[in-house]
From TrEMBL:
GO terms for biological process: cellular response to iron ion. It comes from Azospira restricta. Pfam families: Peripla_BP_2. Residues 43-292 form the Fe/B12 periplasmic-binding domain. Transmembrane segments: none annotated. This is Cobalamin-binding protein. The lineage of its organism: Bacteria, Pseudomonadati, Pseudomonadota, Betaproteobacteria, Rhodocyclales.
Length: 300
């Protein structure tokens, strides 16, 4: 090929890349709204820690110009400017950042705040993944909006492969009646549509409050005693086992207490809808395996 032709072909390829970068992008968010941008987002504000982490996983961390408190993973997320907390947003701080995309959280952000931002003309993507597999789709959708589709697709495929491996390993096991405790006062658990319930199902567990419609219902100690779970698993707030998990030891009629099946999963691994959810799910599954082993030892 002649040098002039090579140069022309090279310039054409650059033009095609540039055109693709400027092309309109569109996805459907978790509440069914079509989110459309004239070109991939260059300035993104994330209104939830899990969304910040997922944006980084999708290859879009460099475009995140604002986020909320507790957005601490990966390490680079700690350096991003804060716009309040997910439940107490600073709308003026968000506006000052001039985002071309705002990523919100349906069950965490106040609906009034999201409506206000939408009314001000900002493009809003709303996140609410209630099933583990939804995380992979969300990575891909955010990658589309940020123009990092290749990175996002590769990450989503890795997630799906690991998820399939966990299902193959822990699916079809003997059922374990499970009480998942988020907090002590008020005593909170997870309902049927919460993603942790999906993790419990993957591990062949049965959420004893899995018929409740609320995402994070409040229950009573009496209700837990009546449900008689074979294991109690808690997350709490930090990366260490909450002291209040051992408060159950005084309720000796509960099978979980009789067999010392009181376990902990770090909240950042299971309460955030991110790729690390699979780490938390695996820990949960292994706890249920311990319950089964102890059950077998009790049998004659």
């Amino acid at each position: 090929m002649e040098p002039a032709m090579i140069r022309s072909a090279f310039l054409l390829s650059l033009a095609l890349v540039a055109a693709a970068a400027q092309a309109e992008v569109s996805v459907r968010d978790d509440i069914g709204n079509t989110v459309k941008l004239a070109q991939p987002a260059k300035r993104i504000v994330s209104l939830a820690p899990h969304m910040t982490e997922t944006l980084f996983a999708a290859g879009a961390g460099a475009q995140v110009v604002g986020t909320v408190d507790y957005s601490d993973y990966p390490e680079a997320a700690k350096k991003i400017q804060r716009v309040g907390g997910y439940s107490r947003l600073d709308l003026e701080a968000i506006a000052a950042l001039k985002p071309d995309l705002v990523v919100g959280w349906q069950s965490g952000n106040a609906a009034a705040h999201l409506e206000k931002l939408k009314g001000l003309g900002y493009t809003i993507y709303v996140s609410q993944p209630n099933r583990i597999e939804d995380v992979a789709s969300e990575i891909e959708r955010l990658g589309t909006l940020a123009g990092t589709g290749a990175v996002a697709h590769a990450e989503a495929e890795r997630f799906r492969e690991r998820l399939a491996a966990l299902r193959a390993q822990f699916g079809g096991k003997a059922t374990v009646r499970t009480f998942y405790q988020i907090w002590k006062q008020p005593l909170m658990t997870v309902g049927k549509n919460q993603i942790i319930s999906d993790a419990i199902r993957l591990c062949s567990g049965d959420n004893v409050f899995g018929t409740l419609e609320q995402m994070a219902p409040t229950v009573t100690v009496e209700a837990v005693i009546a449900a008689n779970p074979e294991t109690i698993i808690a997350s709490g707030m930090g990366d260490s086992r909450p002291e209040w998990l051992d408060d159950w030891k005084k309720w000796t009629s509960i099978d979980a207490v009789k067999r010392d099946n009181l376990f902990f999963v770090p909240p950042e691994l299971i309460q955030r809808h991110t790729p690390r959810l699979l780490e938390g799910t695996e820990k949960l599954c292994r706890h249920l395996e311990t319950v089964r082993e102890r059950r077998r030892k009790k049998q004659p």
